[in-house]
Design brief:
By secondary structure, the protein is of the alpha/beta class. It contains five helices and ten strands; from the N terminus they run E-E-H-E-H-H-E-E-H-E-H-E-E-E-E. It is globular, with a radius of gyration of 16 Å. The relative contact order is 0.25. A hairpin with a 5-residue loop joins strand 9 and strand 10. The strands form two sheets. It has an eight-stranded mixed sheet. Strands 2-8 form a two-stranded antiparallel ribbon.
């Protein structure tokens, strides 16, 4: 069965965005970007909310044509364009770039999607991740912790009423100080 994997960057104090929604503090260098490419290349779909999809669609479709793009950025542009995408939005009228729009998260539909053949699916965006978490649909959390304290902003995990047991599956420290903490859902 395919897994749904949340993959998010956070500050050490747990924020995915600063207080003004800024993400300019994300420390994605060539090593980290290549790691993302290597992980995402084998996925079967990108799943996101409207805000994340619009952010990605505003840059990645033509990023490989930018002469200032790094090799890893050029490679990711192709991965992003070719990868099937599912965007959850009640307001987005249409979406290009191999994207399907769904209006709401329905647990039975997501479970059916997980049962299809193919690679795992990458889930991005803290609000959508909260919806998936509430429905117990997330199998793995890959959290990339940047060495910065923001003090305030949008938290990765909003208030939630029950515990979720996880098992540490991997840690990795990148040369720029970012640390990957990868946890798998403890279903036993």
């Amino acid at each position: 069965m395919r897994k749904i994997i949340v993959s998010m960057t956070t500050s050490l104090d747990g924020f995915v965005e600063g207080p003004g929604r800024e993400i300019d503090w994300h420390m994605v260098d060539e090593e980290l970007h290549q790691h993302f490419n290597d992980r995402l290349r084998g996925m079967s779909a990108f799943i996101s909310g409207r805000v994340t999809w619009e952010l990605m669609a505003g840059y990645w479709p033509t990023a490989d044509a930018d002469p200032d793009s790094t090799p890893a950025e050029r490679e990711f542009a192709g991965i992003w364009r070719e990868m099937p995408k599912i965007v959850f939005s009640r307001t987005l009228p249409s979406a290009g770039w191999n994207t399907e729009i769904r209006r709401e998260v329905v647990a039975a539909e997501i479970r059916e999607l997980k049962e299809r053949p193919g690679g795992d699916m990458a889930l991005g965006g803290p609000d959508l991740a909260a919806s998936f978490r509430a429905l117990d649909l997330i199998d793995e959390y890959s959290v990339y912790v940047d060495p910065i304290l923001l003090g305030r902003g949008k938290p990765l995990f909003a208030d939630f009423d029950h515990r979720t047991a996880l098992t540490l599956a991997e840690t990795r420290t990148f040369g720029n100080g970012v640390v990957l903490l990868r946890y798998e859902r403890d279903r036993g």
